[in-house]
Design brief:
13% strand, Rossmann fold, 7 strands, 5-stranded parallel beta sheet, single chain, 2 domains, alpha/beta
Length: 270
Protein backbone atom coordinates (compact mmCIF):
# COMPACT_ATOMS: atom_id res chain seq x y z
CA UNK A 1 0.00 0.00 0.00
CA UNK A 2 2.77 2.41 0.97
CA UNK A 3 4.72 1.68 -2.19
CA UNK A 4 1.64 2.29 -4.34
CA UNK A 5 1.10 5.67 -2.68
CA UNK A 6 4.69 6.73 -3.21
CA UNK A 7 4.57 5.68 -6.86
CA UNK A 8 1.43 7.73 -7.27
CA UNK A 9 3.09 10.64 -5.50
CA UNK A 10 5.96 10.62 -7.96
CA UNK A 11 3.97 9.74 -11.06
CA UNK A 12 5.52 11.45 -14.05
CA UNK A 13 3.60 12.58 -17.06
CA UNK A 14 4.87 10.75 -20.13
CA UNK A 15 4.94 11.93 -23.71
CA UNK A 16 6.22 15.44 -23.01
CA UNK A 17 6.70 17.53 -26.09
CA UNK A 18 9.76 19.65 -26.66
CA UNK A 19 9.00 23.26 -25.75
CA UNK A 20 10.24 26.41 -27.40
CA UNK A 21 10.15 29.48 -25.16
CA UNK A 22 7.34 28.20 -22.90
CA UNK A 23 5.21 30.64 -20.93
CA UNK A 24 6.20 30.14 -17.29
CA UNK A 25 4.69 31.30 -14.01
CA UNK A 26 6.14 31.03 -10.49
CA UNK A 27 3.70 31.45 -7.62
CA UNK A 28 3.70 31.09 -3.85
CA UNK A 29 1.02 30.11 -1.34
CA UNK A 30 1.58 29.80 2.42
CA UNK A 31 5.32 29.29 2.95
CA UNK A 32 8.57 31.14 3.52
CA UNK A 33 9.39 31.79 -0.18
CA UNK A 34 12.68 29.91 0.21
CA UNK A 35 11.79 27.61 -2.67
CA UNK A 36 11.31 30.58 -4.97
CA UNK A 37 14.67 31.89 -3.81
CA UNK A 38 16.20 28.55 -4.85
CA UNK A 39 15.29 29.46 -8.43
CA UNK A 40 16.79 32.93 -8.12
CA UNK A 41 19.95 31.51 -6.53
CA UNK A 42 21.00 29.85 -9.79
CA UNK A 43 23.33 32.85 -10.09
CA UNK A 44 25.64 31.42 -12.72
CA UNK A 45 22.88 30.21 -15.04
CA UNK A 46 19.85 32.38 -14.26
CA UNK A 47 20.38 34.68 -17.27
CA UNK A 48 20.73 31.73 -19.63
CA UNK A 49 17.62 30.20 -18.07
CA UNK A 50 15.59 33.37 -18.51
CA UNK A 51 16.57 33.44 -22.18
CA UNK A 52 15.06 29.96 -22.66
CA UNK A 53 11.64 30.75 -21.16
CA UNK A 54 9.03 33.48 -21.28
CA UNK A 55 8.64 34.35 -17.59
CA UNK A 56 5.14 35.79 -17.55
CA UNK A 57 4.47 35.80 -13.82
CA UNK A 58 6.70 35.79 -10.74
CA UNK A 59 4.97 38.05 -8.17
CA UNK A 60 7.77 37.53 -5.64
CA UNK A 61 10.21 39.58 -7.75
CA UNK A 62 8.27 40.98 -10.72
CA UNK A 63 6.21 44.15 -10.55
CA UNK A 64 4.30 43.41 -13.74
CA UNK A 65 2.72 39.95 -13.99
CA UNK A 66 0.39 38.56 -16.63
CA UNK A 67 -2.80 36.68 -15.81
CA UNK A 68 -3.03 34.30 -18.75
CA UNK A 69 -2.54 30.75 -19.99
CA UNK A 70 0.77 29.11 -19.01
CA UNK A 71 2.73 26.18 -20.34
CA UNK A 72 4.48 25.57 -17.03
CA UNK A 73 3.86 26.82 -13.48
CA UNK A 74 5.89 26.24 -10.32
CA UNK A 75 3.76 26.46 -7.18
CA UNK A 76 5.43 26.91 -3.82
CA UNK A 77 3.64 26.60 -0.49
CA UNK A 78 0.74 24.63 0.95
CA UNK A 79 -2.95 25.39 1.14
CA UNK A 80 -3.63 26.96 4.54
CA UNK A 81 -6.24 29.62 3.76
CA UNK A 82 -9.22 30.26 1.53
CA UNK A 83 -7.08 32.64 -0.51
CA UNK A 84 -4.45 29.92 -1.07
CA UNK A 85 -7.11 27.59 -2.43
CA UNK A 86 -8.55 30.27 -4.70
CA UNK A 87 -5.14 31.13 -6.17
CA UNK A 88 -4.21 27.47 -6.62
CA UNK A 89 -7.38 26.54 -8.47
CA UNK A 90 -7.22 29.61 -10.66
CA UNK A 91 -3.62 28.95 -11.68
CA UNK A 92 -4.25 25.23 -12.23
CA UNK A 93 -7.08 26.06 -14.63
CA UNK A 94 -4.68 28.16 -16.71
CA UNK A 95 -1.61 25.94 -16.92
CA UNK A 96 -0.70 22.84 -18.90
CA UNK A 97 1.90 21.57 -16.41
CA UNK A 98 1.79 22.27 -12.68
CA UNK A 99 4.85 21.58 -10.54
CA UNK A 100 4.71 21.30 -6.75
CA UNK A 101 7.86 23.16 -5.74
CA UNK A 102 9.38 22.29 -2.38
CA UNK A 103 8.32 20.59 0.82
CA UNK A 104 5.35 22.81 1.72
CA UNK A 105 3.67 22.18 -1.63
CA UNK A 106 4.63 18.51 -1.53
CA UNK A 107 4.15 17.40 2.10
CA UNK A 108 2.75 20.40 3.98
CA UNK A 109 6.07 20.74 5.81
CA UNK A 110 6.43 22.89 8.94
CA UNK A 111 3.33 25.11 8.40
CA UNK A 112 1.17 21.97 8.48
CA UNK A 113 2.29 21.27 12.06
CA UNK A 114 -0.59 23.41 13.26
CA UNK A 115 -2.85 20.46 12.47
CA UNK A 116 -1.57 18.84 15.65
CA UNK A 117 -1.54 22.03 17.74
CA UNK A 118 -4.47 23.47 19.67
CA UNK A 119 -5.63 26.68 18.02
CA UNK A 120 -5.56 28.55 21.32
CA UNK A 121 -1.80 27.96 21.40
CA UNK A 122 -1.23 30.10 18.32
CA UNK A 123 -4.34 32.14 17.50
CA UNK A 124 -3.06 35.11 19.55
CA UNK A 125 -0.16 35.32 17.09
CA UNK A 126 -2.49 35.81 14.10
CA UNK A 127 -3.75 39.08 12.76
CA UNK A 128 -6.93 40.19 14.50
CA UNK A 129 -8.76 40.82 11.22
CA UNK A 130 -10.50 37.47 11.38
CA UNK A 131 -12.96 38.53 8.69
CA UNK A 132 -10.04 38.69 6.23
CA UNK A 133 -8.04 35.62 7.27
CA UNK A 134 -10.03 32.44 6.69
CA UNK A 135 -8.14 29.33 7.69
CA UNK A 136 -8.23 26.05 5.80
CA UNK A 137 -6.96 22.78 7.18
CA UNK A 138 -3.28 22.70 6.10
CA UNK A 139 -2.71 20.38 3.16
CA UNK A 140 -0.37 19.73 0.21
CA UNK A 141 -1.55 21.16 -3.09
CA UNK A 142 -2.15 17.71 -4.59
CA UNK A 143 -5.07 17.32 -2.18
CA UNK A 144 -6.92 19.97 -4.18
CA UNK A 145 -5.71 19.92 -7.79
CA UNK A 146 -3.84 17.67 -10.20
CA UNK A 147 -0.08 17.96 -9.80
CA UNK A 148 1.99 16.86 -12.79
CA UNK A 149 5.45 16.92 -11.23
CA UNK A 150 7.03 17.35 -7.82
CA UNK A 151 10.41 18.84 -6.90
CA UNK A 152 10.69 18.07 -3.17
CA UNK A 153 12.97 19.46 -0.46
CA UNK A 154 13.21 22.30 2.03
CA UNK A 155 14.37 24.08 0.05
CA UNK A 156 14.73 22.12 -3.19
CA UNK A 157 18.22 21.98 -4.60
CA UNK A 158 18.75 24.80 -7.10
CA UNK A 159 20.54 22.49 -9.53
CA UNK A 160 17.64 20.02 -9.38
CA UNK A 161 15.26 22.84 -10.35
CA UNK A 162 17.49 23.93 -13.22
CA UNK A 163 17.89 20.37 -14.50
CA UNK A 164 14.14 19.88 -14.29
CA UNK A 165 13.47 22.97 -16.42
CA UNK A 166 16.05 21.92 -19.02
CA UNK A 167 14.55 18.41 -19.20
CA UNK A 168 11.04 19.78 -19.73
CA UNK A 169 12.29 22.12 -22.46
CA UNK A 170 13.83 19.12 -24.24
CA UNK A 171 10.67 17.04 -23.85
CA UNK A 172 12.61 14.69 -21.58
CA UNK A 173 11.00 13.00 -18.57
CA UNK A 174 12.58 14.54 -15.44
CA UNK A 175 14.32 12.19 -13.04
CA UNK A 176 12.64 11.19 -9.78
CA UNK A 177 14.01 9.59 -6.63
CA UNK A 178 12.30 6.79 -4.72
CA UNK A 179 15.40 5.33 -3.06
CA UNK A 180 16.06 6.50 0.51
CA UNK A 181 18.69 9.06 1.47
CA UNK A 182 20.77 6.16 2.83
CA UNK A 183 21.72 5.20 -0.74
CA UNK A 184 23.35 8.58 -1.26
CA UNK A 185 24.99 8.42 2.17
CA UNK A 186 26.78 5.25 1.13
CA UNK A 187 27.92 6.87 -2.11
CA UNK A 188 29.30 9.78 -0.10
CA UNK A 189 31.04 7.46 2.39
CA UNK A 190 29.12 8.86 5.35
CA UNK A 191 28.95 6.99 8.64
CA UNK A 192 25.42 5.92 9.58
CA UNK A 193 24.07 8.39 12.11
CA UNK A 194 21.53 5.88 13.41
CA UNK A 195 24.39 3.65 14.50
CA UNK A 196 25.90 6.48 16.57
CA UNK A 197 22.55 7.20 18.22
CA UNK A 198 21.14 10.10 16.22
CA UNK A 199 17.45 9.96 15.17
CA UNK A 200 18.15 10.23 11.44
CA UNK A 201 15.17 9.88 9.08
CA UNK A 202 17.32 8.94 6.08
CA UNK A 203 16.02 5.33 5.84
CA UNK A 204 12.40 6.48 5.36
CA UNK A 205 13.03 9.64 3.30
CA UNK A 206 13.26 9.94 -0.49
CA UNK A 207 16.73 10.79 -1.75
CA UNK A 208 17.83 13.21 -4.45
CA UNK A 209 19.42 15.70 -2.04
CA UNK A 210 22.86 14.04 -2.26
CA UNK A 211 22.59 13.50 1.52
CA UNK A 212 23.55 17.14 2.04
CA UNK A 213 22.54 17.29 5.72
CA UNK A 214 24.38 14.10 6.67
CA UNK A 215 27.44 15.28 4.72
CA UNK A 216 27.51 18.21 7.14
CA UNK A 217 27.09 16.05 10.23
CA UNK A 218 23.35 16.67 10.71
CA UNK A 219 20.72 13.97 10.68
CA UNK A 220 18.02 13.86 8.00
CA UNK A 221 14.68 15.39 9.05
CA UNK A 222 12.61 14.01 6.17
CA UNK A 223 12.00 17.17 4.16
CA UNK A 224 11.76 15.31 0.82
CA UNK A 225 8.90 13.13 1.98
CA UNK A 226 8.60 9.34 2.28
CA UNK A 227 10.76 7.03 0.20
CA UNK A 228 9.41 4.08 -1.73
CA UNK A 229 8.88 1.02 0.50
CA UNK A 230 9.69 3.05 3.62
CA UNK A 231 10.08 0.53 6.47
CA UNK A 232 8.52 2.53 9.28
CA UNK A 233 8.36 -0.46 11.64
CA UNK A 234 12.12 -1.05 11.55
CA UNK A 235 12.98 2.65 11.80
CA UNK A 236 10.66 3.20 14.75
CA UNK A 237 12.08 0.16 16.52
CA UNK A 238 15.63 1.52 16.12
CA UNK A 239 14.62 4.86 17.65
CA UNK A 240 12.91 3.07 20.53
CA UNK A 241 16.10 1.11 21.14
CA UNK A 242 17.96 4.44 21.23
CA UNK A 243 15.73 5.40 24.16
CA UNK A 244 13.29 7.72 22.36
CA UNK A 245 9.64 7.50 23.38
CA UNK A 246 6.80 7.30 20.89
CA UNK A 247 5.82 10.95 21.34
CA UNK A 248 9.33 12.06 20.36
CA UNK A 249 9.27 9.78 17.30
CA UNK A 250 5.86 11.01 16.18
CA UNK A 251 6.89 14.65 16.64
CA UNK A 252 9.99 14.00 14.56
CA UNK A 253 7.89 12.74 11.67
CA UNK A 254 5.33 15.54 11.95
CA UNK A 255 7.77 18.40 11.44
CA UNK A 256 8.47 18.03 7.72
CA UNK A 257 6.38 15.18 6.36
CA UNK A 258 3.69 14.35 8.92
CA UNK A 259 0.79 14.70 6.50
CA UNK A 260 2.42 12.13 4.21
CA UNK A 261 3.38 9.70 6.97
CA UNK A 262 0.48 9.82 9.42
CA UNK A 263 -1.71 7.20 7.75
CA UNK A 264 0.99 4.53 7.50
CA UNK A 265 3.46 5.44 10.25
CA UNK A 266 1.47 6.99 13.07
CA UNK A 267 -0.73 3.95 13.54
CA UNK A 268 2.38 1.96 14.51
CA UNK A 269 2.78 4.33 17.44
CA UNK A 270 -0.83 4.05 18.63
Amino acid sequence: MQNQKVRKLYTIQSGLKKMSKPKVGIYGLTGCAGCQLSIIFNEDEILDLISLIDLRAFPFIKEKNYDEEFDLVFMEGLVASANDLEVLKKVRSKTKILVALGACAHTGCIPAYRKWTLKENYEHLLYKKDDIIKDEDPSPIENHVKVDFTIPGCPPDKHEILTFIKDVLKGKTPKTYNNPVCVECRRNNNDCLLIVGKPCMGPITAGGCHSICINGGFECWGCRGPSGDANYDAWIEILREQGHDDEFIKTRMKIFAGLKMEEDAFKILE
